[in-house]
Each structure stands twice: as structure tokens, then as C-alpha cells.
Amino acid sequence: QTAPSAGTGPDRTMMIHTGLIVVALVLALLGVMGDAWSVEEQSQDVLGITVSVESEVGLTDMSATSCVDGECTTASEDLSEAHDNCTSLASDLELNSSATEEMCGTVGDMASAGFTGTLFIILGVLALIVTLVATFMGTRGTTFPFSQFYPFGGAALTLIGVVAWYLMMPEPPEGSDPSLGANAWMTIVSSVF
Q: How far apart are CA 62 and CA 77, in angstroms?
């Protein structure tokens, strides 16, 4: 009688590897699509009325929710459009370049940071997709060169996107102390996976 061949059962290491790549891919996609990258909540009591403002800055847009005694309104705007609107307003007011930069620079810096972060994270997502394809093709007997390093490339690009976004973001205004939001943390955890 012959012993059963060793390769007939499912390869647990490959299943775990594929599962981690899929989780990293989903987290990176959720992170890049969400608005909660930089969040801040402030509240005050004014004449017995509670006023709170929660602001969220994402990679491509920003939103602010203000609540006065439980009545809440939310306003959101695309960062690129906000910068374009600001510079066209400055042009209409015939402001010089330094006054325009002072008025619109923060929004422009946030839009640039978001664009750079998005670019690197999307490249990381593409690397993770290529990893899944290479893994699938590997089970069919076709191996890609250096395919064992593809997941590290995806993780590195995603992490570079988060770090680049963080470093390019403008300094918060005086009295403001935003923190990393859920979407930023999802993207960082994606790199870890």
C-alpha cells in the first residue's frame, strides 16, 4: 500500500496568507474611501446651551457637524473644489499672491496631502491585488518572479501613503488638536496585515 501524498489537503499557510492579504485589501480600501482621517470634537456651554462641533478631514474632502442643543447640521466640501473656490474668490478680490496663499494655503496643503496619500495607498492596493493574482497563479503552477515580496511592497506603499499624508498636512490652528481618525487607523492596520 502506498502512503497518501502530502499535497492533497488544503495548504493552511496559503489560506492564512490569502486571508491576510484580503483583509489588508479591504481595510486599505475602506480607509482610503472614508472621511475620518483627521478628527476633532469641541464643545462649549454658551449661556446654558451646549454647542459642539465635530470636524473630519479625509483624503479628498472635509466635513463639519455642528450641534446646538441637540439640533445638528452637517456641511461637507471637496478639498480641491474648496481650494479652487478660495483662489477664484481671491482673484475676484484682486489679492496678491502672498495674501492668496495666506487665505487659501491651508486648504491647498490639505488637498495636496490627500492627493499624495491617495496615490500611494492606491498603488499599495494595486500591489495587494497583484499579490492575490500571483497567489492564485501559484496554485495553478505559474510563479511570478519575486512574488514573495509583493505583499511587502503593498504594505510599504500603503504605509508611505499614510506617513506622506501626515507629514504634508498643515499645522492645525492655535487651540486645535485633531487626532487620527478611524479611516487612518484602518489604513495603518492594513499595512500591518
A: 6
Q: Which pLDDT band holds residue 119 (cuts at 50, 70, 90)?
A: very high
Q: Is the pTM of this model over 0.85?
A: no
Largest alpha-carbon pair distance within the chain? 92
Distance CA 187, CA 164 (A): 13
Q: What is the pLDDT of residue 10?
A: 59
Q: Quick one: which of 120, 127, 123 has its CA closest to 164?
A: 120
54-82 burial string, b = 16+ CB within 10 Å, else e? Answer: bbbbbbbbbeeeeeeeeeeeeeeeebbeb
pLDDT band with cut points at 50, 70 and 90 for residue 120: very high
Please name every residue paired with 75 in a beta bridge, in sequence order, or none if there are none.
64
In sign, the C-alpha dihedral spanning 80, 84, 90, 94 is positive
